[in-house]
Amino acid sequence: MPGPDAVPHAGPGPDAVPHAGPGPDAVPHAGPGPDAVPHAGPGPDAVPHTGPGPDAVPHTVPGPDAVPHAGPGPDAVPHAAPAPDAVPHAGPGPDAMPHAAPAPDAVPHAAPAPDAVPHAAPAPDAVPHAAPAPDAVPHTGHGPNAEPYPARGLSAVPRGMVRMLSRT
């Protein structure tokens, strides 16, 4: 270049410019130029992108096609949906939801999820339960582990103990 028959080419030469095609030396490039396409590499203008192209990678930033993703990549963030790598997570993010497992941010929760577990605290969905869990507390219902027991006063003595005392 210059000249009316100038064609872009990747090199070698001082007028080399990256170009996407057509031609055997075509290379993807992010710009400048009308044939710019996002690409993950190699090259100094590499940018993460979700597509189109065989080097598409999920990324959260920067770019208009940013999507939350669990990995791979340094900007990975846990997310519940929508993507094939969705994982339940307690936060941070607008799709955060409590979950019991498997993840380092697991928290016990009563519902709604297939991994729900009863728990007494601390959460707005806490429910009393007798077992099995380190926060177990006796309760009168509901559930298969409910234990009837009087609330307070003299009647707080278990019924069997009352019968035994009445015999003496």
From TrEMBL:
Superkingdom of origin organism: Bacteria
Biased composition, class Low complexity, residue ranges: 62-139
Positions of region (Disordered): 1-153
Protein name, per record: Uncharacterized protein
Species per Swiss-Prot/TrEMBL record: Nocardia aurantia
Organism taxonomic ancestry: Bacteria, Bacillati, Actinomycetota, Actinomycetes, Mycobacteriales
